[in-house]
Every structure is written in structure tokens, then in C-alpha cells.
Amino acid sequence: MILEITTFDHPALRARGARISEITDRIRSIAADMIETMRDADGLGLAAQQIGLPLQMFALDVSQMKNRPSAMWIDGRPTDFESLMPLVLMNSEVETFGDLLVEGEGCLSFPELSADIPRPFSVRVKALTLEGVILEFEADGLLARAIQHELDHTRGILFIDRAVEDDRNAFPPDIRRLMRSIS
Ligand code: ZN
User: Fold this and answer.
1) How far is it, in rounded angstroms, from Cα 79 to Cα 75?
2) Residue 150 known to be catalytic
3) Residue 83 CA to ligand 1 centre (angstroms)
4) Taking 90 as the threshold, does the pLDDT of residue 146 lie above it?
5) Are 146 and 125 a contacting pair, CB within 8 Å?
6) Residue 87: what are its φ and ψ, rounded to 5°?
7) N or C: which end of the chain has fewer CB within 10 A?
8) HSE-up of 26 (CA within 13 Å, CB side)?
9) Which residues of 43-68 are buried (b: 16+ CB within 10 A; e: fewer)?
């Protein structure tokens, strides 16, 4: 089912997600709705907060973005990440590394808005999948950026909070009001 995406000042967007202790039918159903909603909106990712649920859960699909490459390694071996998409990750533990790269980002919860966001180029991830297994991998590029963006959502952090100063200053007043400092 395609769900309404929460936007701007919706309180769910500032809610920290709860851990998911078990893959139940409800979790599987939420995941299916998140994937459907993400695809309908042409998004690269969607977090549970964006459908109003405070959970540590997000969906990703970067397989269509040929002009912004991604890479993934499992056990140190290059992995065909496209075959894993759409991917739903829960309870993600993410370690970032590599150079800090400033690139443009958008967000389905902030239609029409884009901003330059500095983020490390690479991530090391340990997360629960819908199959109930722990998936460990490393990723680079757009996939690493999308994971960091979605992980932020599950902690109530938004991309506007991380925008470079020039972009923050250029945001319209109603967006500036929603920005929070990251401690
Ligand atoms: Zn977003």
C-alpha cells in the first residue's frame, strides 16, 4: 500500500526509532508498504519516520542511479549490490570512514529542496534484514551516502541539519525554523 509521506514539521520526523526485536508479519507488512511508497515517489531511500513510525528501519534502492556510482563489499569481496535492492535494514549500526565529500542531497520529506551535505565516503554496516539475519557489509559512494541519510532519519536527524553553511543561510525561513543543531 502506498502511504502518505510525512513532511517538514511532522513530529514523527524528529522521533528516535525503537529497535525491532523480531521480524513479525507487521514488520514485513510495514517493509512492503515502505518499498512501495519509496518506489511510487521515485526515492532512493525511505525511513519508517517518513511514514509516521518511530522505528529503526529504512528501505533503500540505489540501483537505478547509474550516474552516481555505488559499491558494496561483503567479507571484503565486491558484491552485486543491485541484486540486493530494494534492501530493508533494521537496527543498523554504522561506522563511517574515508574522505569527507560534499554532495547534493534531497529528501522525500522536503519536496523541491536540495542542499550540499558533507558526509564520509564509506560506511561499515551491521544490520538486521527481513530474513532475520545480521548482514555485515562495507559500502562506498551513493549507497554509503543514502545509508547515512536514512540512518539519520531513524535518529530524528534531518539533512537540513547537516547542510553546508551557505545552503543553510539560503533556506527559506520556514525551513530554517525547522533546522536543529547536531550535538
Ligand atoms: Zn530523507
Assistant:
1) 9
2) yes
3) 23
4) yes
5) no
6) -120, 130
7) C
8) 6
9) bbbbbbbbbebbbbbbbbbbbeeeee
- Expressed in angstroms and rounded, the spacing between residue 64 Cα and the centre of ligand 1 is 17
Residue 142 neighbours by CB distance under 10 Å: 17
How remote is the CA of residue 22 from the centroid of ligand 1, in Å? 25
Q: 22, 136, 150, 165: which one is catalytic?
A: 150
Residue 121 corresponds to which cell in the numbers above? 565516503
Domains of the chain: 21-176 (3.90.45.10)
Alpha helices in 83-170 (DSSP H): 141-153, 159-162, 165-170
- What's the sign of the alpha-carbon dihedral 113, 157, 128, 71? positive
Distance 44 CA to ligand 1 centre (A): 9
Distance from the CA of 149 to the center of ligand 1, in angstroms?
A: 6
* pLDDT tens-digit readout, 55-82: 999 999 999 888 899 999 999 999 999 9
Model confidence band, residue 178 (pLDDT cutoffs 50, 70, 90): very high
